[in-house]
Structure formats: structure tokens, C-alpha cells
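A quick aside before the break. I want you to see a complete sequence-to-structure record at least once, exactly as it would be stored in a machine-readable document. Don't worry about memorizing anything.
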Amino acid sequence: MGAMDALEEADDFDADVATRICWHYYKEGRTQEEIAQSLNLTRKRVNRIIRQALASGLVQITIDSRHSACPGLESRLKARYGLRFVKVVPSPADGTDVRAVVGAAAGQYLSETLGPTDSLGITWGGTIRAAGQNLRRRDGGNTVVSLTGGLASSGPVNPYDAAALFARALGAPCKYVTAPMIADSKELRDALLRSAPVADVLGRVRDIDRALLSAIDLTDQSKALEYGVISAETWRSLQRAGAVGDIAGHYLDAGGKAVRHPIVDRVIAADLEQLRAIGELILAAGGIHKVPIIRAGIAAGLVHVLITDEAAARELAEPS
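That is the input. The structure line, written in C-alpha cells, reads:
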């Protein structure tokens, strides 16, 4: 990497510059090279800013959902797994986070289908954040309910931040689980579950109209490991216990059964029966590495609507 490239990589994202670049690129149809020359930037930097603008939600791309890029795969998955609805989006180019494109599709789906007074439960993760960034803004009528506890430090994937993002987009009140995602002990978890604030929020879960869920894998690409939600030791022991990932705080094996592991007794989240009672469960997850936990979620009865990318969809369409 040259000195100029290194300097550019260190630059902070500038929303004003990004807005100008994206206007030229998407509205005027100018090439990245033309934009780079007119703004005295490198083409590489222009490309990176466009990708950052998409990932941050500054740019939202809407595609008429009456048309599908992958109708054959959608029909196959719907029939094979008995799902109500499947949306498959083209897999992104190398270097683009699949969570951004799958999340954008999830945000568009909710924008089109969420009723004016529906309550919406959400989990956490990069796909959930991207969905929130791509929601069409509206004012009032909905309620957002967090389905898990939070993380100690703030950040773009924290369940508290995700819930707040959805609440702002929908102009809605938000119900938070005011407890950690993972307690230090079973005794503390049990005490927190009995506490009035936590019991009140989790008690509402059965009455939620819809829930947007993410799938957290336990591969070497796991964001739970990268973000420090679980330790490397716990990650390895979960794999040994047969877990392929978790959905809404529930660690599942390849057949969709809840695994037995010490962490299970410390997780603060809505229980499986509460989740299954929700009217519509939407699982948004993409990437081939997510296929085992997507399959597990379907087998566990946690998916009515699946939103994924083409690469994962092709793998899901094959015999397991």
C-alpha cells in the first residue's frame, strides 16, 4: 500500500463528501473515474466511499419487490421448507458485506408489510442494523420490543442501539430488556428474569405481531467471537456441544434442537415457546457460512419468512 493509500484509509468517513459522490454516481450516472477526477480524489477512494455510504445507510437502494432476481430459488426454498415467503437477493461482490444487502432487503420487506399498529420484536447484529437503516420512515403506531439483553459497551451491533435505530425509523416507543445478554451466573440470570422491568418486557413477547431475527453462526467468521460476545474458549466448547449457532439467544444444533451447555443457563432472552407464539418470524441471514444455523432455525420452528442471498439459497436448496 502506497503512502497516499494509507493516508486515505485513515481518513474518517465524511458524510458531506459521500453525499456529493453518491449523487454524481447514482443520480447523474457518472463513472467513478469521472467523479474521482472532478473531485481530485483517487478512484479507489471514490469506490470505498460509495461502499461506506451503502453500509452506513446514507444511500438506500429500493427495488420493486414485485419482481425477483431469483424467483426459481425462492420457489424451491418455499416449497422445500414450507415457508410462507422467501426473498433471495443476488450475492454481493467480493469485499462487500453480505449483511448489508440482506439487511437492506429485510428493511424493505418490513417497510412494505409492517402494519400501522404492529408491534415488532428484534434481535441484534449487522444484518439487523442494515435493516433498520433501510426502513422507510413513518410516524407513530408501532412498538419495538428487544428480544434479548444487551451488551456492556455501545456499538453498531448492540441490541440497545439496534432497537433504538428501529424505534427512530418507525417513530415508535421501544421496550428494552434492561439486563445483559449473558449474565455472570445462572443465579443472577434467574434473579434478573424475575425483576419487574425484565419480566414486563419479556412478558410482552407472546403478543408481538412480528419479529425480525438474525442468525449468529459459530464458524471462524462468527461475529459473536469477533465482537467479544463470547470467548474463544466458549466458542470452541459450543462447537464441541454440537451447536451451529444461535438465534435470539438460543444455541441450536444442526437439527434445530437446543444444545446443553453452561452458557444456556446464563442467557437473558425470550424463551423458545414465546418466540414460536409470535405471528410472523422473519429470519434475515446471508452467506454460505450461515447455512447450518439457517437450516437449524427452520427446523426449530423459528422461520416463517426467510430473507437471504443467492449463494446461501443455492446451498439451502441442496439436500442437507
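Two observations worth writing down. The beta strands are 85-89, 119-122, 143-146, 174-175, 210-213, 216-217, 243-247, 250-253, 280-284, 305-309. Confidence is low (pLDDT under 50) at residues 1-11. We'll return to this after the break.
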